[in-house]
Amino acid sequence: MRLALVASDGPRAQEARHALADAHDWVAPEEAEALVVLGGDGYMLHVLHGMLDNDRVIPAFGVNHGTVGFLMNKPRSSRHLIERIEKAKPISITPLKMTAVTNAGTEHSFHAINEVSLLRETRQTAKLEVRVNDKLRMPELSCDGVLVATPAGSTAYNLSAHGPILPLDSKLLALTPISPFRPRRWRGAILPEKSRVTFTVLQPDKRPVAAVADQKEVRDISEVRVAVAHDRKLTLLFDRASSLDERIFAEQFQV
């Protein structure tokens, strides 16, 4: 198997990269069949976004040398790395596509592996209209923000905002408000993954809103459209004893 090795700038990841330098006949990423990623979740997201941007997607086996490492495998002896990759369980994840239109009429499109978030830019509460599949579902949501999360991202920002954990194979999306003011008791919705969600910013001059697709931000937006990008599937490789679907399922029993 033609494998490439990439690492974040963190000292632990760089130390691991040096230790693995002679463990395999590494090739350049553009020639590889799979990618070994050393770092944390943030670096893995960076690498996956690079694949999406370059229209060349290959499986990625992450080794955690960051903090949480939810998208990564545990670091072990470098002698067994190739064997682990050969025996790894492939997990397919599908990102979201965000199309954001600014108040000036400029359109920006980005992909999100975890979630698309709308966030107020000032002390003023955001006011949003929410449509699902072109049908008006909420004429006015007053909040600090709102997000749409994939199953893979449901244990990240979505969970911190008290959104539901979605099993990886559920084919669902989480629509979760962030500190809702009106309607105060609305806790969000669970949507089929084929859903198209449109947010329209009410009073955009007085109450400016930013849209964020994972780490990519667009400010002063008037409208955001979110849908699953079925043509952009990604593949992560995991040790079979601790794959991503098992981790997401186990999160439901954490106290």
Fold and architecture overview:
It is a single chain. The chain is an alpha+beta fold. The protein folds into two domains: about 5-95 and about 235-250, Probable inorganic polyphosphate/atp-NAD kinase, domain 1 (Rossmann fold); about 95-230, Probable inorganic polyphosphate/atp-NAD kinase, domain 2 (Tumour Suppressor Smad4, Sandwich). Helices cover about 15% and strands about 40% of the residues. It has five helices and 16 strands. It has helices at about 10-20, 40-55, 80-85, 155-160, 245-250, and strands spanning about 5, 35-40, 60-65, 90-95, 95-100, 105-110, 115-120, 125-130, 135-150, 170-180, 190, 195-200, 210-215, 215-220, 220-230, 235-240. Strands 5, 6, 7, 8, 9, 10, 11, 12, 13, 14 and 15 form an eleven-stranded antiparallel beta sheet that branches. The longest helix is centred in the first third of the chain and has 14 residues, at about 40-55. The protein is elongated and about 60 Å long.
Helix/strand layout:
Blueprint (H helix, E strand, L loop, with lengths): L2 E5 L3 H10 L13 E6 L1 H14 L5 E5 L16 H7 L1 E5 L2 E7 L4 E6 L2 E6 L5 E7 L2 E15 L7 H4 L11 E11 L6 E4 L4 E6 L6 E5 L2 E3 L2 E8 L5 E5 L5 H8 L4
Parallel strand pairs: 1-2, 2-3, 3-16
Antiparallel strand pairs: 4-16, 5-6, 5-15, 7-9, 7-13, 8-9, 8-12, 9-10, 10-11, 12-15, 13-14
Provide the descriptors you would attach to this structure in a database record.
255 residues; 2 domains; 5-stranded mixed beta sheet; 41% strand; Tumour Suppressor Smad4; alpha+beta; Rossmann fold; 11-stranded antiparallel beta sheet; single chain; 16 strands
